[in-house]
Amino acid sequence: MREQVITGHGGPTRLAGRQAPDPEPGPGELRVRVAAVGVNFADVLARQGLYPGAPRPPFVPGYEASGTVDAVGPGVEASRIGSDVVALTRFGAYTDVLVVPSAQALPLPAGLTPEQGAALPVSYLTAWALLVVMGSLTAADTVVVHNAGGAAGLAQLDIAAHVGARVVGTASAWKHPFLRERGAAELIDPRAEDWVRRVRTLTDGHGAELITDPRGGRLWRESYRALRPTGRLGVYGVSSATARPGLPGPVRLVRAALGGPLLHPIALMNRNVGVFGVHLGRMWQETEKTLGWAERLLAGVGEAWVRPHVDRAFPLEQAAAAHAYLEARRNLGKVVLVP
Q1: Which of 2, 6, 181, 313 has the fewest CB atoms within 10 Å distance of its CB?
Q2: What are the structural domains, with CATH classification, of the chain?
């Protein structure tokens, strides 16, 4: 099998190819011949030493893949051989052969390409947790989606449209035409205008019921200020920590945290607001729950409101280039690797 390995913490050149024997599925497992691999910003953070819970290098990154089952272990029905699946894994997805627990390999929905299948699990599960499970989004709400042009941002646009909520997206101006087509009601380039003031204007001075933020740092503080009473701030990343590569990873994480609001239960109570976090990588002990979310999202594909969008596919051997592309924020939607 071929795989891409993070050999040490640092830039994209820390990714390197490696050959290894094909793994065999154990009890309750199945093996997938991988057709596409999802690339996530969490992989970038892990490569830079900024991702809590990531293994020490060397390790194979990646959380999601699609492909065809070619072998099963004891306890798994042989009828699964030959089926096309979307799989979740705790690292190890940057490969052309993947072994996962059978429960973590779900049927590839009809009508999706393998690349679209690989774009589905992490982004849409994160978005579902942010908007529906913890964000309690309703049709009467306004939700501000930061980094709306990313894969998780587009997933949130799909889910918010399904709920019926109004979306205000923040993104670079060149991404706005596409995001309007995807359902954003209002768009803001935060580098060109005061986005908090604009949100206040759009909501008649009230603020937003829900704001989601993958960047962290100062944006956490600004988002907290932009909440309406009973509003919720959902945080799901610290990508701003990648901005100072010369500093050690822990120092960059501390800087990002210090840029956020100082939270105290009394302050939250007095403002009638809430702050919560989503970290899909820390949900492995809740597999039954997340697989329930996944089944609802897979059904959403057939109902035509889940529409994973692939921006660009890179060969597996060009994983370093895919990381550089993602770090430069050049993507509109998902970046995938194709073995």
Answers
A1: 181
A2: 2-120+308-338 (3.90.180.10), 123-280 (3.40.50.720)
